[in-house]
Amino acid sequence: MYRHSSFDHWCRVRYRVQFQLGDIVYQSDIIDQLLDAKGYGDSYPIRQTSLFANLNSRYPLKVSISLLSMWPVTTVDLIPTSRHKSAARCYDTDKQQWVVETDILGRQLKLRLFYSDVKNVPRHFTRLVSWNAYVVPCEPDRPVVKAVNGPFTNYYSQKEQDEGFDVEMDLPVEEICDNSGGYTERETGYLTAQIEWLYSHLLYQDFYHHYDDVTRLHKHQMSREVSALQAENYSLEKQLFSYQISISRKDAGFDGPAIAANVSAVGGGA
What we know:
single chain, alpha+beta, Apoptosis, Tumor Necrosis Factor Receptor Associated Protein 2, Chain A, 2 domains, eight-stranded antiparallel sheet, DUF4249 domain-containing protein
């Protein structure tokens, strides 16, 4: 996968690919890849040899790609056990500055995000930001660690002072303090974290509450329930109509011979 449009961030792309050669079809699982700032990503190996054994046949090779999502990603390197290198600056897609800090005081690793440029939010506006967080292993045999209960959203306004947003990672602190755990460099102790920026919106109102999201969520759930009930009602109406047609056909089938018998009896009596 190669991205032609360029911007300053890496991006995470999720997609599926399908190859079809005649009756032979190969469909991949969801592919999760990182593309660098130049648009280059890792190659994806296709291990179905029967697909390429008949490339000289008369059937063309059809390639279908289903793009599922694409999100900009910021990568930071930190040393959790170092007092002076446990935090790093980064920028989102709006070129706003953030600080990512590690916290190893608990049992699980935490990333704390500070919005440094909160003063840049216009007056009477609130900025809504949504993101997700990952820890990338140093060793390829270890899995990428996702944040617990992600993705996250938060509101920022010029009136408030950002005290940081804690993001708990599904990664024990013991594996961080021990450089042989596969998530920190053995020699330097660096840990690689990624912030996936989902969206950022300016809202023209300087006071928002988290209950606003609850109201919006309830409205969305009620709309889905109403749609489901309407679909169920439509299905029941179709079944009822089908039953009525079936009953009318049966009545017509039984009444036909009876009417014919009555006609014959009348004719014989005459």
